[in-house]
Amino acid sequence: MPKRTVWLNILFQVAAVLLALGFTTLVLVMAGAPPLVAYQRIIYGSLSTFSRFTDVLVSWIPLMLTISGLLITFSAGLWNIGIEGQVTVGAVFTTLVIRLLMDTAVPDSLVIALSILAGVVGGALWALLAGALKTFGGVNEIFGGLGLNFVATALTIWLIFGPWKRPGVASMAGTEPFPAEFSLPLFPDLRLSPWSLAFGILAIVIVYFLLRGTHFGLKLKAIGRNMRAAFLLGIPTWQHMMLAFLLCGAFAGLAGALQVTAIYHRLIPSISSGYGFLGLLVGMLINYQAIWAAPVALFFAALNVGSIQLPLVLKLDSSFSGVLQGVLVLFVLMTEGLRQRLLGRGGLRLGRKNQGEK
Amino acid sequence: MVVNIPPVPQLGTGGEGTDMDVDLRQISKTFGAVHANVDINLSIPAGTIQGILGENGAGKSTLMKVLSGFIRADQGEILLDGRPVVIHSPADAIRFGVGMLHQDPLDFPPMKALDNFLVGQPGGVLPNRRKAVADLHELGSQFGFNIDPEAFVDSLTVGERQQLEIMRLLWLGARVFIFDEPTTGISALQKEILFATLKQLAEQGKTVIFVSHKLEDVEALCHQVAVLRQGYLVGEARRPYRVKKLVELMFGKEISVGERAPMRCDDVALSISSLDVEDYRLQVRNVDLEICAGEVIGLAGMEGSGQDLFLRACSGLVKPTGGKVILKNRNLTGKSYHVFKKNGVAFLPAARLEEGLASGMSLTEHFVLAEGSKQFFINWEKGRQLAQERITDFNIRGEPGSPVESLSGGNQQRALLALMRVPLSLLLLEHPTRGLDIESTIYIWSKLKARCKQEGTCIIFISSDLEEILQYSDRVLVFFTGKASPPMESWKLTRDMLGQLIGGKGWEYFKTGQGRSNA
């Protein structure tokens, strides 16, 4: 790529960030909050102390897991909107196994391990359901996933208010918290678990190499780019798509399992905390390039954690971070579209400029 | 000053717009390092059929896309009727009266013909469907087209879709018509109708630009010809043409076509007996064919006469409803495409970027995929070497890292061929040289013939180019509305006989030969 193009690309990306900041500032002004103070609180809230930074990591881990999974399905050209439900069902399976085994003679650490494994299986099964609907029922994975998300949420609420309700009163606060021995070990005085951190890092590393360096990853890419051509090249297409769903669901289920075993220690109605959808957003923002996943997810996690300060100090809702995140993605996508238009990537058939690259 | 107010379009049955001269002055366009058009000057008076000749990648399509508003030139100007104009978009172009018919029709297959007709109409929330139907009928009768407004476009042939598009552009007030390779993919009969239409358009004073690399078509049709080579306009000619001169202009050197040796059969490689195959609109019945190793079978017929179904049945992509397919003594009847593939069958689709190659992926990635591997990790270094070898071997203009969509059509076809594994027992090709120039065609067939000789690969191919069928097949099957002729030795056939059979004449001759038919 010529140098000039590189600089122009950077310019467009900077412009996108500035536009997003400008827009959110406008929203802040309209809400009657001093924008600079708000931004300051977000930075302060996420980075001012070591323990706050580790809180950012706590939020980064599930996001990393969902993105890792989504990179696989994106690669195969699949929009796994159902990831939110896959996180949820993962959490449900984990809770189920802990509930079944907590009063038995099974060692505590084995219970935790089995429950996490169950979460992985649960997420994978829920994803396979979306895949099966697509493959055998002709239901687009976006619609199938959306429907299954609703079912997963309903299932959770039913469990919390029905069979798994707290003794006495059922409440939105969730099921009865598990005893401390069924929680993943945490770093002393922090909310961060070394196990979770390892899972999060391992996930993206595995996916990076899976997509970049393996025949399986290349086949998924071919399916995503042109399913018909992939089939004619001899790739069993639907089987690979099911595998992509399965793997993505496994990562999502792991995220759900960690939400239960490392963070909430019980099942709550919004156990997925929107990490599935946030993962989709980050995926779009980084244009599905695994290499960018970690830093961008870290930034989003910092926004999540930092904005917790806003209600306390400025009486703004903490969902404000969502505004910034959503707007950022939209502006980046928009400027990318503009860039292609202005710099003329041209139509498909005209795209000769890449010839001779590499 | 540039006048930039498009005239108000006149919807109607064509003909009322005034004639229009087209002048292209010093048009230049580059894509990255590729000079697609360099300083091209061309003037086309109204009422002329102007041929644009050139091999693939010569810059024909680019020039036409500039004129029709799909892309903007880097330099130069366009004059319509002596007035400089700036054309921003295809919609703009049609407002100026310039309409383009693309090689692959840009229509909406799942919609009705009438809706396609109405879709580009400017203004009006509620289209006047009744008037549109009437106009469609009138335009149709004017040109001898017969298209049912209620028919879905995906049920029409490519030729009929062209006719619909011509009428739509006329209706929108087009006075300049650009045809990009219009004779590829249509039958001989439809070509005749098309040529008559083009002549009629020119007689009405319309300007017709005919982009092609088929000398024969240009010779038969065009009043004047401009030849492009590597982005430059290298020469112009008027009737009568000296074909040798045109070929020289196109390629810079003369090309001669090789001779074919008669076929000797040693062993039967593929045996097809009483094959029945059908889709929702057509039934192909009772095809018998035994092919020897190394033999080439050409399938002729109008598009959609059953040859495509037959070919796909031979590849396992379509399951036959009856009969047997036996390849090298293995019964593959009813097996899936991937089983056929494992047994040494390869299928090359006509739609290269739609079915054959994956846009956005590099040549290396394609070769690594096609090669397959039992290993988990990819050895990219080996992959690149493999790609480089094949690129050299198949004379592909591109790098291992080039995305396939950046290659020209001919190079894409070479890439597809290079993807085929060795050795193969049976190679099935749909329009192997459609849209390619003579040089690429000869090159590709030399590669194919080499496979037949060295590996004993059998080839079955579909082509709508009769010369190609006669030139390269050992035996020929003609399809007509689902009927297949018995295999005929190609050296006994003439172009005329083939044309008649394709058009459905002379079939009674085979009656006695089809002893095993249902009757």
Description:
The complex is a heterodimer of chains A (358) and B (519). By secondary structure, chain A is mostly helical. Chain A has a domain at 60-306: ABC transporter involved in vitamin B12 uptake, BtuC (Orthogonal Bundle). In chain A, 72% of the residues lie in helices and 0% in strands. Chain A is globular and about 65 Å long. In chain B, helix 3 (113-119) runs parallel beside helix 5 and helix 12 (363-371) packs across helix 13. Chain B has helices at residues 60-67, 90-96, 113-119, 129-143, 158-171, 188-203, 215-221, 243-251, 307-315, 337-342, 352-356, 363-371, 380-393, 409-419, 438-455, 466-472, 495-502; strands spanning 22-31, 34-44, 49-53, 75-80, 83-85, 98-101, 176-180, 207-212, 224-229, 232-238, 268-278, 283-292, 296-301, 322-327, 330-331, 345-348, 426-430, 458-462, 475-480, 483-484, 488-489. Mean pLDDT of chain B is 83; it is low at 1-16, 254-260 and 512-519. The longest helix of chain B is centred in the last third of the chain and has 18 residues, at 438-455. Chain B is 33% helix and 24% strand. Chain B is globular, with a radius of gyration of 24 Å. Chain B has 2 domains: 22-251, P-loop containing nucleotide triphosphate hydrolases (Rossmann fold); 268-344 and 421-513, P-loop containing nucleotide triphosphate hydrolases (Rossmann fold, 3-Layer(aba) Sandwich), CATH 3.40.50.300. Chain B is α/β, with parallel strands linked by helices and 519 residues long.
